[in-house]
Amino acid sequence: MILSEKTNATRQAIRQLLGTSRTHLVTTHRDPDMDAVGSLMGWMGVLKGAGVEVEGWMAEGVPMWLHLLPGVDEIQTQIPRNQYDMIWVLDCAGLNRVAQWESLQGVKGVVLNVDHHMDNTGFGDHVLTEPVSSVGELLTGLAREWSLGVSPTTATWWMGAIVADTGRFLFSNTTSHTLAAMHWLCEQGGDMGMVTHFLDESLTVDGLEALRQALNGVSLDESGRMAMVVLPPGMDEGVAVIRVLRQVKSIEVMAVFRRLPSGGVRVNLRSKHQVAVNQIAHAWGGGGHARAAGVTLDLPMNDAVAVVRQALSAALP
Length: 317
What we know:
The chain is α/β, with parallel strands linked by helices and 317 residues long. The protein is built from 10 helices and 11 strands. It has a 6-stranded mixed beta sheet with strand order 6-7-8-9-11-10, with helices on both faces.
């Protein structure tokens, strides 16, 4: 990984702080993906291996589709104490991306903002952002340069983070540095077979039926360039649907809608080449990358679909 001069200076400051800190809290964004949870779990493993106290916190808990992975039951839904030496916020472009982020306001500690989104708001006491494929790749680079111990379990978590955020190395964010990070993680004992099993071989029969229903409900605009789909009840992530839609040659932009228990609607946006979907998400308080972004809308489903359809149609060249 090539670090900018600013990142290099920040990295050195964080490294010095890490050497004197004994208590750590690690968190990530709401509605987490594999990079968020994989990065969090891996970093917790590194800190534990260094002999310090570390706790993971996600106010809304870990989504059920990630519960097949080892160790996620250690992540707590309440912040256990009111003071830490270091508070790590991973994969969040803004602090408001953390579920119940207000809870952190009453917690004392140095806040570390570690992220790969280039629209990061710069919150926290130390900001470490680089335009790499994933936070998993960013943390791998730090662990290598700081000579931190990385167990096979941590290596596997970070491999999963990288594999997921690069679309199995098919997306344009895959670089030689990404592949070098994967090579190093393999050398640390990372289990690519376990990553493959979880990401691509764990669909249940009920999940298959939900996927069938979702694909049957896909709607295309007249040009065939825009695809939209509302996930059926019980289907709590749309990665499988998006992977199918990306294979359709004419489709440029995709929107996947999911009802949340809170009553809002989660919208995942994707594009192939021409539309910066993060700019669309920003208009509603969301964020992400140019080709992959998300936002939560406090609207009825029909209204959410209508406003997103209008925004995507306007953005298509």
